[in-house]
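Slide 14.
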Amino acid sequence: MAEPEAAPAAAPIAKRPRGRTVLLIAAAAVLGIVGGTAVGYDVQAGRAPTPLPALSQPDLAYPAKALPAGGAPDPLPASQDRRVRTDGDLRKLLADRPAGWSEDKAALGFRDGWLGVDEYARTFRDKGSQYEYFVESDMRRIAGAAWKRGQYRTATTYLVQFRSGVEQEAQDLAEGQRSYMPGTEFGAGNDGDPLKGSGNGRYYLYEVERKPGYLPSYQARATVYRGDIMADIHIYDTVPISKKDIRTLAERQLERL
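Slide 15: predicted structure.
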C-alpha cells in the first residue's frame, strides 16, 4: 500500500517592518507641526498690530493735573522737605541749651560746634575700631554741643551725619551701638528704655564706676536716628543721674530733628 503524500509546507507569512511604521508616523507629526506653524504665522501677519499699554499711569502722575507749558510743581515746604533742613548748617539742628546749663568751654575737640571724625572716635572705648568704621562708612560731618551744670555734671550731644546713599549708615550706627549696650565691658549693662515718639531711640543709665581715690562716676546715654543723622547724647556726673534727666535731653533733641 502506497504511503500518503506529505502535506505541502505552509508558505511563510511576510511580516511588515515595524521601523517603517514608526518613521511614517514621525514624519507626519513633523509635517503637521511645520504646517501649523506656517499657517499661524500667515494668520498673524494678516492681523492689525495690537497697541501696547501706555507706560505712564495717569493716577500716579505728579502733579495730579497737567501743568501749562513750561510750568513746574511748587516745591515742598521746608516742614515737609527733609533735605532743606539736613543739607544746611547741621549745627542749627542741635537742641537749644536747657535752662540752668552753661556752655562747657573745657570740652575737648569742639571747634565752633564741629567735631572731627578722629575726635568723635576718641569718645569710644574701642577707639581704633570705631575710627576705621567711621572712615569706611562714608561719614559726612559731625556737629556737637557741650554743656555743664553745677560742679561736675556735664552733657554732650553729637549729631553724626552720613552721606545719603543706598546704605542706611545712620541706622546701622545706632543699631550697632544699641547691640552692645546690654553688656558691661563697653555698654551700660542693661537694655535701656524706649524713647517715646521716636520709633527707634533708647536711653540708658550705666552702672556706677568706682575707683579707689576717685569720686564715683555716673553716666547716661541716649541714641536716636532720623534719616541720615544719628543723635548721640551723654550725661556725666559724680552723683546719680535720673532717667528723667537723660530722657528730657533726648526728647528735646528729637523734637529738633
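Speaker note: The beta strands are 102-103, 139-149, 153-162, 193-194, 202-205, 218-226, 229-237.
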